[in-house]
Amino acid sequence: MFTNKKHSIRVIAALAIGLVLGTPAALAQQDIFIDFGRGPEAVHLPPQIESGEALPLVMMLHGYGSSGLLTDIYLGFTEEADRRGFILVKPNGRVDIYGNRFWNATPACCQYFGQSNDSAYLRHVIDSLTQRYAIDEGRIYVTGHSNGGFMSHRMACDHADRIAAIAGIAGATWADPGANCTPTEPVATLQIHGTADLTILYNSGCLVGLGCYPSARFTAYSWAVLNGCELQPETAQEQRDFTARAGAETTLQAYPNCDAGGAAALWTLAVGSHVPAFTSEFLPAMVDFLFTYEKR
Question: Distance of CA 46 to CAs 43, 125, 177, Å?
Fold first, then answer.
């Protein structure tokens, strides 16, 4: 896929950085910052926090070379948190020798140098927030873009007891989920991927110096197996308009009759790139998927 490691790093680092508008400072003013052991992390508390009601928690994970604040600008999560009333945490990964933030999700993406137990750290962030704030512990969700998408799947594999649902955008699960993904209970999962993604290929690929990753379809299928679903996906009759391309370009597929609390879905963005320009319909639809599922 790539000619050399430096080119791999450069392409992955594109992510949302080249497309975002606005500045992180504007969003940072709305956040509080909490040190969970790796330095301050941005947490957004919606106005509904004043009610004292237990609110959902959404963890949003950035891609390689990006940050929580930049990804928030790209996807618009703070506005959605205020509208729907959920607590939003947008942590940052460690920094590699090139100055790029990353998550150690799977061998394919994106740990070029050093070790980092990000799965345990992010679990610690979730546990700490539930101790600090009134959070509905049956409604904890993880989502991410690119490297953050890989990490979302990793979190579902490792912390199924804690996470109700995940949505990974332009990422993938383990190349061998049977050997590496052993969730203790069902987790609802959504894979979102563009067919024209040249960074993380829709139909699988490899990153030089790292490893290989499965296709978007295999990622969804592997979760159908893990969640006890029927293994023939159903396709929605109507497509959705989730990107700035003309017309309804996104096909929605889901595996039916999963075990209680489980789901496996794939949203395919026809000719979608690695960093799609999403319409205003996209994020509410993705959050609708997440919030359909609760742990009880």
Answer: 10, 18, 36
